[in-house]
């Protein structure tokens, strides 16, 4: 559980492109009629159980385990857990605003007021926990919370548009560079080993410097960042697929030093691998 936290953004809220208003998770019961909705946009994630959202216009959404709902600000609604559900309705949420929030909501028009399964739910939940831990540190971390919120919303979009996202990563231009594609395939095939950038560049037929420039221009990140992203996502999958697996074992499977893996995992998700593994096991046993 992540007890409700109200963000202390002081005067930063209107200066930040994305700002967290509140965040948390709990066993949701019932929210009485909100005629004018909530004054901020909200993303809801259902960890277990089932509940129903009823919009004042008559539209109804049933959300169960692994599903998400994006609710725009000032949308009248009410919601409650379903009595027939065998599990408690464990609902995570983040309310947000900021100067760029409305524009991003417009970009996500097809996902607004749409309840559906989130293919990357566990990654979303980890990022939600990361936001909670950041807000729990205090208002001086508002910029970090803003970055984490933006990452969460992009992950939410990515999960619902996997084909477009995959195309963007693997074939980033109309005329993809075959050598870069071969290098990316090499990374995907061997990211669990101790990859050296010089070896990947050599396989692509480039100098390290030229390969680095081409990769950033085509993929929007450095090769090292790309490898780290793959490893972090794989680590979450390993913790899910193998309950009880040790942190050292996961690090070894990813070709990473254990202490470096722990540091990068916490930087990415806001919790240590051990905290995540423990929380994931407990949640699955509920």
TrEMBL record:
PROSITE patterns from the xrefs? HTH_ARAC_FAMILY_2
Entry keyword set: DNA-binding, Transcription, Transcription regulation
Where does the record place the HTH araC/xylS-type domain?
181-279
Q: Which GO terms describe its molecular function?
A: DNA-binding transcription factor activity; sequence-specific DNA binding
Looking up InterPro entries in the UniProt record yields: AraC-bd (IPR003313), Homeodomain-like_sf (IPR009057), HTH-like (IPR037923), HTH_AraC (IPR018060)
Q: Which domain of life is it from?
A: Bacteria
Which Pfam families does the UniProt record give? AraC_binding, HTH_18
What PANTHER family does this protein map onto? ARAC-FAMILY TRANSCRIPTIONAL REGULATOR, HTH-TYPE TRANSCRIPTIONAL REGULATOR EXSA
Q: What is this protein called?
A: AraC family transcriptional regulator
Organism of this sequence:
Paenibacillus agaridevorans
